[in-house]
Amino acid sequence: MATDLKGLKAACGQSIWVDNLSRTLIRDGILRRYIEEDGVSGVTSNPSIFQKAIHGSPYYQEDLRRPAASAERLYESLVVEDLRQACDLLHPTFLASDGDDGLVSWEESPRLGDDAEASIAEAERLRSLVQRENLLIKVPATPAGVRAFEALIARGISINVTLMFSLGHVRAVFAAYQRGLRQYIASGGDPRRVKAVASLFLSRVDTLVDQRLTAMGSEEALALRGKAAVAMAKSAYAIYQETFHGQGFAGLREAGGRPQYLLWASTSTKNPAYDDQLYVQPLIGPETINTLPEATLRLFREHGRLQPTLEDGLAEARATMARLQALGIDMDGGIAATLQREGLQLFSDSFEEMLAEVRRASA
């Protein structure tokens, strides 16, 4: 019997977003069905997703021949239409949740990951292009990206911080959010207008950590394979609870500030030996978001269970993190730095491939 995913938010407090956006998804009514039948309440996108969409969907071909100043501006004109339509489909959810859900994310150019000032200007420009209140601009959790994030929150711009791979990233982003929110309130802004989420990537963590553990080859190392990402996510949620439900955030909450929800990203299982719900079933809890690729969403619908699990096994998760550290797996250092660098490069490669495709199609 299929799982009624529409009950997840009411039963467990978690939102399901779909990690895909294309004209096929919109024009063929697929996104509308996800919203109506599965309770999907948000959309995430990135350069890789748009590259695949423009390459694989027939709905872009005519518009690819429109005149434009550059391939990048033509790409923007294509995806702005998609983003507006997705925002419009989710706007009733946005209103019903008082701005807490029903959101659509658009990623900045990965070329800007190390340039805070350019990231700030670009986020403002992209938001002005879409002109929808339920749009989130995605900026990476690089050092420059975190500075840009703080400045953008201080200007009242809603943000999805992406490419987070460690507890260190979580702490830095949460701290930047609170600093930005204080500045926004001090300038007379209404914090209820600001929404931020923090996207913690999971499967990529296990892929790299598993490689290191396999290379070690010891019984203790091999026993930890496939456990790092979930342990990190559970530990991150404990940090979330301490940060946003503790005294440190009480003043901002009283002023109307929203907690910065954790979003589980990269949730398709890369290792076929692992459970296809490895990054879904153990991580169900209130005030969180899981953004699922369509295949993972279908699998969750087929055999998922709607039960809160996120706070289970926290002591074990912390012990796993400590065991990894004892083996020399530096989750906050080398692992996070490598994955963030590779993630930014992957998005950059996809972005350049997409622009090359746009040039070819529009020639």
TrEMBL record:
Pathway the protein takes part in: Carbohydrate degradation; pentose phosphate pathway; D-glyceraldehyde 3-phosphate and beta-D-fructose 6-phosphate from D-ribose 5-phosphate and D-xylulose 5-phosphate (non-oxidative stage): step 2/3
EC number of this enzyme: 2.2.1.2
Highest taxon listed in the record's lineage: Bacteria
Catalytic activity, as annotated: D-sedoheptulose 7-phosphate + D-glyceraldehyde 3-phosphate = D-erythrose 4-phosphate + beta-D-fructose 6-phosphate
Pfam families in the cross-refs: TAL_FSA (PF00923)
One Gene Ontology term, aspect cellular component: cytoplasm
GO molecular function: transaldolase activity
GO-annotated biological processes: carbohydrate metabolic process; pentose-phosphate shunt
Active site: residue positions: K138 (schiff-base intermediate with substrate)
Subcellular location: Cytoplasm
Gene3D superfamilies reported in the protein's UniProt record: Aldolase class I
Family, similarity comment: Belongs to the transaldolase family. Type 2 subfamily.
Listed name of the protein: Transaldolase
